[in-house]
Amino acid sequence: MNSVIIFTSLLVMLLSVKHGLLISQHPKLLVISYDAFRYDYFDRTPFMNKLKHEGTYADYMMNIFVTKTFPNHHTMATGLYAETHGVVDNEFYDPASGNTTKYSYNLYHYNNRILPIWTVNQKAGAQRRSGTMMWPGGIYEYQGISPTFAQNFNETVPWEERIDTLISWFVHPIHPINFGILYIEEPDYHGHVIGIKGPQFDDILRKLDNITRYLHNKIEYHGLHDLNVVHLSDHGMATVKLDRIIDLTKYINSSDYKFVGTSPGLHIFPNPGKEEIIYQTLKQAALKSKTFRVFKRDEIPKKYHYGNNTRIGPIFVIAEIGYAFQNLLDNIEYYKKKFNITVTSDSEFGLHGYDNEAIEMHPFFFANGPAFMPKCKLEPFNNLDLFPLFCKILDLQCPIGNGTISHLTKCLKKHQQDITVIAYRLIFVATIISMTLVVIIGAIIIFYMRKRRLGAKSYRRILEDLEAQYHWDENHDIENDTCKLNNFPDLFVISCYAKNRLSYAYKGNIKYRKTLFHCR
After folding, report:
1. Considering 45, 56, 67, 69, which one is annotated as catalytic?
2. Of 64, 81, 128, 359, which has the maximum CB count within 10 A?
3. Does residue 12 belong to any structural domain of this protein?
4. 41-60: per-residue pLDDT in tens?
């Protein structure tokens, strides 16, 4: 019975391995974004710093204009500039309807032909599946296609739970994903409130370091050694103090326009007939103060790839690094209530959204896994290049975007996909052979055990018949009685098997209970 149980368990285990190999044949990639994690924070995150230098990395990454969360996350997902994918800010205003669109399906569907990487992967079929964990725009359908698994943003869900859920998607017994994407809202969330220099902010970075260690421990625990992991951020962060807040109402009447967006970049929609006077007034104020810049939509510098989109306001103002507009004061009032902070003239607040050429806005990048060369340093590159990089790792035919992969290939292992496919095939063949051997060995064991049980039963039965017929016991004369055994040629003694199943010959001794019978 024990042998049967062992054999059955082994068979089930091997069948599970076979099943896992069959459904995990595609390259696997996990992307994790840490909102507003600046490129130079690594001296405060020892585990992440070690992980960075063990893999493929760059000193920093360059992002798109404007350096805000939703535009840059969608650029990383599509490989397109904001003016092309349409997520030009965290919100936009439609003058025709008078509606301001915030985080929603419409924000991410300026052009329905544009697909994010998780949809491209899902659309490729052949058991390719994607999972999006709180990534901006990740819960929506694109061309009617949803990711296999998707979780909307919920700040109350602990980071550990997010990671556990995401990893469970990779090892799902029926619908495992080969691409997962994860968003963590720190250090942005607290950086806005407490600034980026104090011990409280250091604690946030320490927690991020710990959760990164937790992630990699989980990857190791589940044996996901073929999982490529890309760590990155969307933008950096700069510091603003109260004495550097610009009040635009000192220059223009607030009743003459409407604005959308948040500091340091605002979209201004003048009332009919007020556009030119507002523009000229702000232009003069900007030249005089040198604390902000102002552009008409069609005058936004081409290098920003930002002005060619109707979601941009007719006038766009952007503060210089370290400055903000008056709407930041509304945010500060919210911070005071939400986080119970005391604000003084020395208080510092974190802010992003500035010119993407400012070093303070630069995010980070590093990656580990079978597709990446260890200890390989890249020159700083654009986050537009991430989309073709993801496609390369996932072995996908992707739409042409604004990025390129040519300068990243030096840190990619050669023919990684071919090696992976060959390895899977070899493992699969080896598994089939192993299963066949186990089945054969198991059948032999079962046959042997059944024969042994039958032999033992026959042996006991014959001895009982002998005892009943001749009444042998310890008092009989052994020498006179043992010859009678010759009258039982069918005596079945498993250790003395001589001929075949129908005819047995006994030679030697039989010990029954305490009596030894000898047959000449």
Report:
1. 69
2. 64
3. no
4. 999 999 999 999 999 999 99
